[in-house]
Every structure is written in structure tokens, then in C-alpha cells.
From TrEMBL:
Keywords: Oxidoreductase. The lineage of its organism: Bacteria, Pseudomonadati, Pseudomonadota, Alphaproteobacteria, Hyphomicrobiales. Residues 11-190 form the Ketoreductase domain. InterPro entries: KR_dom, NAD(P)-bd_dom_sf, SDR_fam. Gene3D superfamilies: NAD(P)-binding Rossmann-like Domain (3.40.50.720). Belongs to the short-chain dehydrogenases/reductases (SDR) family. GO terms for molecular function: oxidoreductase activity, acting on the CH-OH group of donors, NAD or NADP as acceptor. SUPFAM superfamilies: NAD(P)-binding Rossmann-fold domains. This is NAD(P)-dependent dehydrogenase (Short-subunit alcohol dehydrogenase family). CDD domains: SDR_c.
Amino acid sequence: MYANFPDLKDASVFITGGGSGIGAALTDGFLAQGAKVAFVQRSDASAFCDEMQEKHGQRPLFLPCDITDIAALKRAMTEAAEAQGAITVLVNNAANDKRHKTEEVDEAFWDWSQAINLKSYFFACQQVIAGMRAAGGGSIVNFSSISYMMGGDGFPSYTTANSGINGMTRSLAREFGPDNIRVNAMAPGWVLTQRQKDLWVTPEGLAAHIDRQCLKVELVPEDMVDPVLFLASRASKAMTGQSLVVDGGVVVTG
């Protein structure tokens, strides 16, 4: 059960990577509010959309797209706005935390990593501004990560992008605040998606991380939903330019 935010009913929501992992939980959570949800990702999400339609009586609009192709991303966002009304909630969620070592990174890998983890965020934000302005405002939520706050090693291009998302979020919040467009960041801790379990989770590594958390629980995708709904809704109408950490209490802000 998620918290209920009545103002999200019928809102036009666009989520990148909305058919798997945290993104799938977000799609589920927004549909539960009665929102109209469109999302993009590369892999086929038809079965997930069938599941959501059966559960909520409303089918999310799935638009296959590689978000590193900015022209394709903008086309998908235009299609979503035409189908569901001007996008008033944007959640930049898609990311790739592929492990890498600094000395092994070449330009091609760097450009690919930044294209997914930072560049696509900026241009998705750019794309929704006009529609949000015309609608009288909107909310953008950019997913970052606590990895850059921890000085995490093993993925320096990813942590660089995460830090960049924070700076971008603050600048856009300042620039578009007069249009009643709010821009905030979400910084999850180690959320145990299926991908994380398949690729990175080891019993020893997970135990060490949970030992660093104040709350001694494993974080799951559903734990990210209520915080994002809050940032998307009028419940957070006085919040912008902020980074909301949801990590079980690993890092300390302020």
C-alpha cells in the first residue's frame, strides 16, 4: 500500500526505464494514484504492461526507446504528451552502473556512460519545460545515488554523473522556479533490484553495506515509490532544488 496523493489522479507522468527494477515499482505506484503513465526502455515491456492493466484497469503507455538517442527520446516524449496530455511529472530514473576501472575507461565507454546517466536526463528535462510552463507548473524528479556521496569506487564515470545530476537539478530549479516547475533529486542507497542481485550482490558485500545503514533492512524497489510520489505531488509544493536521500541511513546530509 502506498500513500495516497489525490492531486496525482489523471496527472500525465513520464518515466525513463519504467518497466523494470525501481522504474517498474514507480509505474505501479503512479498507476495506483490514478495517474496516466508513459515510460520508455529498450527491452520489451509488453508483459509488464499486461500485468499493470490487469492490476489497475489502466494500461501504461510503453514506448520502446534507447535514451542515449536524444532525438528518439524526444519523439517518445512528444508521443506521450499527445496521447496523455502535457507531461506534468517527469521521473528520470533510467541509469546504468556498470562496474569499471579508471585506467580501463576509453572515450567510447565514457561517452556511453554519460549519455545514459546524465545527458539523457538534461534533454528529458529540456523537453518537458514548455508543456509544464503552459500547464502552470510541474515536478521533475532526477534519480541520483548515494554512491558519489560515499566516494564509492568501481564506477567513477557513474559517480561523476550522479554528482552532475545534483548540480543540474539545482540549476534547473533556480531557472524554472518562476514557472512553478519544481526540480528535485532522489538519492537511493543500495536497492536490491533483480539486476543488482544478478550482477553485484554477494552475501559479504550486502552484509557490510547493511552494517553501515542505521536501519538494518534490505532496501527494495517499492521503498522508493512513496518518496517519489511525495516529490511529484503538491505535498512537496515548497520543495525544489533538493536531494532526498533514501538509503536506510548510510550517508548524513546537511
